[in-house]
């Protein structure tokens, strides 16, 4: 029996790091979807003739849905001035990490082209929300602040296409993985990286390059529970009049008061209200759909 860690999953096979080398394991058709490995999984392999087959996936410490990896310690949410940052996506990534119990780093890339105030605005929105915020430049190989955070454990990059996830990994690891330009027409990324892959930096230190995305779906969260994924709101909620305050329209809400006085970031709060609305609409839609189905 051979123990290893899944570094990449393709449609018909996956690659497993077994210490000093990487072995290829063919996926069997009979493998059920829930037994398919994810990048990051610890697995046991069995030798069958001259090939290895999957014997067991070890219990997962956690599992992120987007990007789809397991056993991550940190998610490095990368943003840049170009392509334009969709902060709602950043919020959703933070919620996803929170749900999985993974810590978060906001990494502002492309400081060579950031307009005045961009990094400061990111800091204002996510100070006290993300576990760390760093500003770096892959182009000029100014990545020391990020490198410090990558030591030990498994850090998974995430973010929109073309923010420079692969470029940062290239700069940090001295690699030459394929990077892609922005489309001139849409100023959006071209989804250059197509599958998640763990890169081993040293024993116990892995980073993962992942495909970028345009927009993130919502998750299975009840609208009244959304605020539980906002640490900065949870910290103030004991000051709200209602025990189960959702900080939307309840009277004497400590969170709204903090937003009004500027203690909490207003942009993030506005997006929180939007997400709440989205979740409520989706819940209603689901209920009516279910009712129609039951009738
Ligand atoms: N000016 C500037 N451009 C950068 C920097 N880092 C990356 N880029 C450029 O941004 C573009 C996208 O870089 P990638 O590394 O492919 O982005 P990605 O996030 O991996 O994109 P996907 O694989 O599509 O998700 C490329 O044209 C890079 O040269 C930087 O620090 N400054
Ligand atoms: Mg990439
Ligand atoms: Zn409240």
Write structural notes for this entry.
It is built from 7 helices and 13 strands. By secondary structure, it is α/β, with parallel strands linked by helices. The longest helix is centred in the last third of the chain and has 29 residues, at 266-294. It starts with a strand and ends with a helix. The model has no long low-confidence stretch (mean pLDDT 92). Guanosine-5'-triphosphate (GTP) binds next to helix 4.
SSE topology sketch:
Blueprint: E1 2-9, E2 13-17, E3 22-26, E4 42-48, E5 51-57, E6 63-64, E7 69-70, E8 74-79, H1 87-100, E9 103-108, H2 118-126, E10 132-135, H3 144-150, E11 153-158, H4 165-173, E12 197-202, E13 205-209, H5 231-234, H6 254-260, H7 266-294
Parallel strand pairs: 8-9, 8-11, 9-10, 11-13
Antiparallel strand pairs: 1-2, 1-4, 2-3, 4-5, 6-7, 12-13
Q: What is shown here, in short?
A:
The chain is 27% helix and 23% strand.
